TrEMBL record:
Residues 54-306 form the G-protein coupled receptors family 1 profile domain. Its main location: membrane. It holds the Pfam family 7tm_1. It comes from Hemibagrus guttatus. One of its GO terms (cellular component) is early endosome. GO terms for molecular function: C-C chemokine binding; C-C chemokine receptor activity. This is G-protein coupled receptors family 1 profile domain-containing protein. It is a multi-pass membrane protein. Belongs to the G-protein coupled receptor 1 family.
Length: 362
């Protein structure tokens, strides 16, 4: 039976992120720490600024024009809120990575972990809900209860359910996160410390893989594989643009989150006692920094993919810019008038529903 890495060594090295530091510590982490102190604060700062501006604009547009919102807009609003929660934790992790110690106290350690984990899982669950919403509207227009009863109460109930699931998935990390004084020195660390001899750490890795990649990717592939044939059957010049947008959604999610989940799975094997060497420990730490950096930038792309690539949202965004900055954007024409946009949306929806109805009769 393979020994766990914690049994292989008693030496402990803390890390910058909120995930628990792995065992099998390398004898020399100087290069890794030097790289982290420069690279991570810089990257986190860029992601924070770009993501905060993009998601903040999405929230402003949807709040201002909430009277004309639909279920898709509700999901988009909560997706932006999730990304903002996640982004709010990055300045603290950037400071932590820069000085290699936690200076904000125990309460802030847990509070930042709450922001990080709630934003992480909230973003994933609302992407799933948005995908299912599109699927039910287009594929099961007349047969789905989800499509028939799209009331305000139903939307609120679904939103509360998603946030409850996000909190439930985040609870293990939140409960076991704490600021500790390592080895009695003045250097404090903020990390998740699971009880020794339990399977909580292994469970956290598997949870990340299942909820962070397997389930959302499976839902997206299944739903969009059913949506695309229906869109292609519509006599509309915009069907190819819609299909390209769907392919971009799935491809970006896969490319940005798959490397991260592969490294998480390797850390899971590492926790079980496989690849338990100092070199593997250092390689996994370095790999995690790269793949985590790639994954974090996805929250910057969410506003571009889900919001700004939509014609209706671009018009609303340009309308706000005209009101806020009339001298700069007063002469910019909207892509279409609101009346024309409503007629186009109505025609596309009628085409989809008619197609779905004819298929159900067959």
């Amino acid at each position: 039976m393979a020994r766990s890495c914690e049994e292989a060594t008693s030496e402990n090295y803390s890390h910058y992120d909120n995930l628990p530091p792995d065992c099998c510590s390398p004898h020399n982490t100087t290069n890794l720490m030097a790289f982290s102190r420069v690279f991570l604060p810089t990257l986190y700062s860029i992601v924070f600024i770009v993501g905060f501006i993009g998601n903040g604009l999405v929230v402003c547009v949807l709040v201002k024009y909430h009277k004309s919102s639909n279920m898709s807009d509700v999901c988009l609003f909560n997706l932006a809120i999730s990304d903002l929660l996640f982004l709010l934790s990055l300045p603290f992790w950037a400071h932590y990575a820069a000085i290699i110690q936690w200076t904000f106290g125990s309460f802030m350690c847990r509070a930042v972990t709450v922001l990080y984990m709630l934003g992480f899982y909230g973003s994933i669950f609302f992407m799933i809900l948005m995908t299912i919403d599109r699927y039910t509207v287009i594929v099961h227009t007349y047969t789905s209860l989800f499509s028939k009863h799209r009331s305000v109460r139903a939307s609120i109930a679904l939103v509360l359910l998603m946030w409850t699931l996000s909190l439930g998935a985040s609870l293990p990390s939140i409960i076991f996160s704490k600021a500790t004084n390592s080895n009695g020195t003045s250097a404090w660390t903020c990390r998740v410390e699971y009880p020794e001899g339990t399977l909580w750490r292994s469970f956290s890795y598997i949870e990340l893989n299942i909820l962070g990649l397997i389930i959302p990717l499976s839902v997206m592939v299944f739903c969009y594989s059913r949506i695309i044939p229906i869109l292609m059957s519509i006599k509309s010049q915009k069907k190819h643009k819609s299909v390209r947008l769907i392919l971009v959604l799935v491809s970006v999610f896969f490319l940005f989150w798959t490397p991260y989940n592969i490294v998480i799975f390797l850390k899971f094997l590492h926790e079980l006692g496989y690849m338990c060497t100092s070199q593997w420990y250092q390689d996994l730490k370095m790999a995690m920094q790269w793949v985590e950096s790639i994954a974090f930038t996805h929250c910057c792309l969410n506003p571009i993919i889900y919001a700004f690539m939509g014609q209706r949202f671009r018009n609303l965004f340009l309308k706000i810019l005209k009101e806020w900055f009339p001298l700069c954007f007063g002469q910019c024409p909207t892509i279409k008038s609101e009346r024309s946009q409503r007629m186009t949306t109505k025609y596309s929806y009628s085409s989809v529903t008619s197609r779905s109805k004819s298929k159900s009769r067959l």
